[in-house]
Amino acid sequence: MEVRKEGSIRVWAACSTESPQAHIWIDVQTPASIWSEAVDLFSRAPDEIQTQPDETSKISPGLTLFMVQTLIEVMNGRLDVLSVSSGDPTSDSQENSIRLQCSMPLGTPEPVEQGLEVG
Predict the structure, then answer these.
(1) How many other CB atoms are there within 10 angstroms of residue 78's CB atom?
(2) Which residues, in sequence order, are bridge partners of residue 83?
(3) For range 21-39, the mean pLDDT
């Protein structure tokens, strides 16, 4: 297993004044190509596609992103991959950065029952 110790992650959050939502932003210094996947599975012969998972198979970053987006949508939220704008056009550090924005509705307080009924 290869361990890479480069790049950075920046996280911050805020509540929207225009809508009842909370926003969480995550800046990740990584190439955008990590989230893209080959779409040629239909063009491959069935014997070329691995049907049985082995111990070394991993979930790809693209599939992980799709699953997380789906779960957040089920919770009435939204996950977007945004571009990071750079103030310095000669800086290439921003080219390797992506921003994830997670928008979630704020919860409404609900009363909690004090006791459990035993029947």
Answers:
(1) 15
(2) 98
(3) 75
- Token look-up 């550090």 returns 93
Do 35 and 65 meet the contact criterion of CB atoms below 8 Å apart? yes
What are the CA-CA distances from residue 114 to residues 99, 109, 110, 119 (Å)?
A: 42, 15, 12, 16
Residue 53 neighbours by CB under 8 Å, 6+ apart: none
pLDDT of res. 19: 82
Show the beta-strand stretches assigned E in 1-119: 9-15, 21-29, 78-83, 97-105
Q: Evaluate if residue 90 carries a pLDDT over 50.
A: no
- What single letter denotes the amino acid at residue 36? S
Task: Tell me the one-letter amino acid at 23.
Answer: H
Count of other CB atoms within 10 angstroms of residue 97: 19
pTM score:
0.58
Give the integer Cα–Cα distance in Å for 83 and 100.
Answer: 9
pLDDT(95) > 80: no
Which two structure tokens, joined as six digits, stand for 95? Answer: 């080219």
Facing residues of 21 across strands?
A: 105
